[in-house]
Amino acid sequence: MYFLGIETSCDETAAAVVQCADAHALLNQGEQARILAEEVSSQVRIHEAYGGVVPELASRAHLTNLPWVVEQVLRSSGVRFSDLTAIGVTQGPGLKGCLMMGSSFAKALCLAQGLALIGVNHIEAHIHAAMMDNQGLRYPFLALVVSGGHTEIVEVRGLGRYHIWARSIDDAAGEAFDKSANLLGFDYPGGAALAALADTCSGSPFYLPRVMREAEGFSFSGLKTAISVLIKEQESALSYGEGQTKAFIAHAVQEAIVEALCHKLVLALRQTKARSVSVTGGVSANRRLRQRIKEIAGNNAFFPAASHCMDNAAMVAYTAALRYGFGQRDGLDMAVMARWPVEDLIAPPQWALEETRREA
Ligand code: KG4
Ligand code: ZN
Fold first, then answer.
1. pLDDT tens-place string over residues 242-292
2. What distance in Å separates the CA atoms of residue 196 and residue 182, rounded to the nearest whole number?
3. Distances (CA, A) of 167 to 175, 271, 328
4. Which residue's CA is the closest to the ligand 1 atom numbered 19?
5. Is 93 in the pocket of ligand 1 (CB under 6 A)?
6. Where are the beta strands (DSSP E) in the chain?
7. What is d(CA 153, CA 39) in angstroms, rounded to the nearest whole number?
8. Which of 119, 35, 110 is nearest to 79 (CA)?
9. For ligand 1, is residue 127 a contact (CB within 6 Å)?
């Protein structure tokens, strides 16, 4: 079976062709999905000048990029439209205009080629990216989803069965990295650049508060104020071009964010029955975070491949394959959902039926 995945929820236009056996084989018989081709066209250069994603510009860029990105993955995989089983497309959450570009494009292809359409939740796709890349990761597990828009610890009980254990009440972890990077003078998005500078030192004389350690959920907005105060205090060192001071501050920022995430993860592991942990979303590329989570969960820590941490379409095609295998089919009237919390998802029909039987 061949699945085409399309992702346009934010500022990346992505397409991928994934080959896999049916969903039952993928989940129960240790079959692996094969990614035949994937392409990501990033719009970072377009939005850089504005210091953030401009929705209207993002939608227009998707419209320009979609045809060649899809054409490219079909050409390099050697898969024709007539070989495809279904098209999986990100239905939400994300920027509405951006989601509409991807879903309209997918619907037109499905209509013209007589293919099945599968709407995919972007967060469910991030959660399953770790499963796509690691044969050893099986339900149930805890997923730490850390991206530019989301920070959540999700108890993953099965396909479409999610319970939120903790979530950010304000900024997302990626946003916290990006805003801190901006205060330190990095160009947008800046998270990865700040992390690279932080990794140049083994310690830091500065300490930033690990916000909301005991309370429910995450909160990163206070970190901005603490960093602004620290930068003000260190103004003269920074303005005299003392690169080391900037690196020390970057190190303190990274430690504060990573430790806030890990503290909650340890509590979640203690309170749930989950043994395995997966970390997904753009921030899961962070080296220090990976190191700390390996210390916490050992061989039960799972990460997606580096190219599948950020937004990509392979994870969308893979999740579509799982849902297709358990009977999901969407109509051409499928509406995009700018807001679509992952816990609102329901299991595809056959999975739900099998689960009921298993539990009876
Ligand atoms: O999942 P993603 O590609 O897009 C969203 O759905 O948001 O995540 C992008 C986020 C950005 O905030 C970016 O700065 C952050 O992931 N990021 C990192 C690193 N690489 C990307 N943050 C910290 N360390 C990194 N190495
Ligand atoms: Zn994402």
1. 789 999 999 999 999 999 999 999 999 999 978 899 999 999 999 999 999
2. 14
3. 14, 16, 28
4. 192
5. no
6. 2-7, 12-19, 34-42, 86-92, 116-121, 141-146, 151-158, 161-167, 276-280, 301-302
7. 28
8. 35
9. no
pLDDT score for 215:
64
What is the CA(262)–ligand 2 centre distance, in A? 20
Q: Measured from the CB, is residue 11 less than 6 Å from ligand 1?
A: no
Report which ligand 1 atom has the smallest distance to the Cα of 178.
14
Give residue 298's identity as a one-letter amino acid code: G
Q: What is the largest CA-CA distance in the chain?
A: 70
- Is the shortest distance between the CB of 286 and ligand 1 below 6 Å? yes
Res 211: pLDDT? 66
Under-70 pLDDT residues of the chain: 211-215
109 lines ligand 1 (CB under 6 A): no
The secondary structure of residue 51, as a DSSP letter, is T
Provide the whole-model pTM.
Answer: 0.94
Cα–ligand 2 centroid distance for 65 (angstroms): 18
Residue 22 has what pLDDT?
Answer: 84
